[in-house]
Write a structure and sequence with these properties.
two-stranded antiparallel ribbon, 2 strands, 8% strand, extended
Length: 51
Amino acid sequence: MSKEVWDMVINHIEVTGGTESLNRSFYSGLYRTCERMINFNEDYQYYSEYY
């Protein structure tokens, strides 16, 4: 994911509270969600562009 795309995503989020560790976990999960988009079709079959 390019820095420009990540900046667009992260600029829509405001996180308050929590510990540094929790914030790190949140942003790591957010990044992985945006980086590895997956698709489930009607039959609940997993498809990924990475395979």
